[in-house]
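ZP: hey, is the zinc ion complex queued? I don't see it on the tracker
AM: it wasn't, my bad. submitting now with these inputs:
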Amino acid sequence: MADTIQETVNELLTKFKVHRPPVPVDKIAKGLKLQLCSLPAEDEISGAIIRKGDHVIIAVNPAHHINRRRFTIAHELGHYFLHKGLGEHVDEDFRVAWRNADSSKAVNWVEIQANRFAAELLMPTRFLQTDLDSLSNIDKRTVALLTARYVVSPEAMKIRLSQLGILGPF
Ligand SMILES: [Zn+2]
């Protein structure tokens, strides 16, 4: 099965000439003519996407750590590309939708897809593969190095490595 998320991300990286991490998600959003703005809100609110005709606004909670703000922009870009029908959408801590294997919880596929998109955009498979080829083993220190290199949270990096089958489930 062709992976549309990976394809869309690869096209974006080519279009914006991104050849190495960190992926400049804010520049990509602006390059797509999306408006980025701050949304002062409670801590649970990560961000939002608002579509009004051709005008699209991505709002981000400015109080959050840079890693989380970058993930929020990437997540909203996921909604932008994958969920065209979404008019106004506020994200309240979508991190709970990370683990999609748990069918006992109400699974929100829209959020899971947006998170998958965000992970692929911030930690593109081919960038990671190149980096990992030059490493002999993956330990705590390597994860910390990758986290700094990709400007993502350690949690996001660990989940990503586990998705790629590099780290065991945790
Ligand atoms: Zn969302």
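AM: back. Residues 99-104 have pLDDT under 50 and may be disordered.
ZP: great, adding it to the tracker
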